[in-house]
Amino acid sequence: MSATVSVNGRISSAREAVISVFDHGFLYGEGIYETMRTYNGRPFLYDLHVRRLRNSARMIVLELPFTDEALAGQIRDTMAAADLQGVEAYIRVLVTRGVGELTYDPAATPRPSVIIIVKPQVDPPAEAYDNGVGVVIVDVVRNHPDTVNPMIKSNNLLNSALAAQEAIRRGGFEGIMRNYRGELSECTTSNLFVVKDGAALTPPLTAGLLPGITREFLFDIGRDVGIQVREEVLRDADLFGADEAFLTSTTREALPIVTVDGRAIGNGRPGPVTKKLLEGFRKRAWGA
Ligand SMILES: Cc1ncc(COP(=O)(O)O)c(C=O)c1O
Question: Domain boundary at 91, 120, 149, which?
Fold first, then answer.
């Protein structure tokens, strides 16, 4: 694995990066994270990512031991050590409850652990954008917001991992999860959009999902390119009856979905609205 890692400011190769087995991130999955990537060497939408990281921290009552600027500096240092030679970076920032006794009492862990992983960003292949991908609707239901709220970008990822494993078993590029009411919520590592009559629709936050940064940015892009982007409660029938569908995430931008459970969406090809939004997104991301 080619990665460079900062563990509480100590930067090393992936092989040498270590963390205590008494870290509550490992013991209890108590931690939060962000995934960012660079365009032209700079972390994209950094302020939005840090805002979400702070919100996740607040929701698990974890005090972040850095300012936004200090974190940016640590990311820069890790990127410099990674020496990516012009290749864009994938950046994962994790903050856990820290190292302490075997107890849920937060008093046992006075110092959060801060980990930054930097490695080359690997884009989906061009064919995935040209031809679209096939996804499945999985049986694993998205966490109820009164359990581990999907609003928290949490290291406690068993819900997503089990859903993703089901998708992989069934040959899906991604797995779409329903919420406890049976409405569509999001995919295991991305947000979901459907296109109907020229508008791009995505489930509202009240459907119980991670407020994706790419999802949020797409509302802006819609205004740029003259496509209405709005929230709407979506069910299976809305997806199967859609003209187009796509998923969004930091590392995959806006990726066309052409089949769901083996059934074609629209004409089974990436559609014009998805393409226009993707183009608009890339223009802004690359600063053109
Ligand atoms: C569950 C889930 N939903 C949505 C997303 C997309 O979020 P973003 O656009 O901020 O990458 C992710 C990203 O990893 C995710 O894990």
Answer: 120
Residue-wise pLDDT for 31-88, tens only, equals: 999 999 999 999 999 999 999 999 999 999 999 999 999 999 999 999 999 999 999 9
CA of 44 to the centre of ligand 1 (A): 14
Q: Is 131 in the same domain as 73?
A: no
Q: How many whole angstroms separate alpha carbon 102 and alpha carbon 98?
A: 12
Write the residue with the smallest CA distance to atom 3 of ligand 1. 190
Tell me the C-alpha distance between 259 and 288, whole Å: 32
Q: 42 and 140 share a domain? A: no
As separate numbers, helices (DSSP H) first and strands (DSSP E) second, the chain gives 8, 15
DSSP letter, residue 88? P
> Considering the entire predicted model, what is its pTM?
0.97
Q: How far apart are CA 166 and CA 174, in angstroms?
A: 9
Q: Do 217 and 141 share a structural domain?
A: yes
Question: Within this chain, do residues 113 and 91 fall inside the same structural domain, yes or no?
Answer: yes
* 132 close to 257: Cβ distance less than 8 angstroms: yes
Atom of ligand 1 nearest to the CA of 188: 1
Q: Which atom of ligand 1 is nearest to the CA of 160?
A: 1
How many domains, in total, are found in the chain? 2
Instruction: Report the CATH number at residue 14.
Output: 3.30.470.10
CA–chain centroid gap for 242, Å, is: 24
Same domain? For 38 and 79 the reply is yes
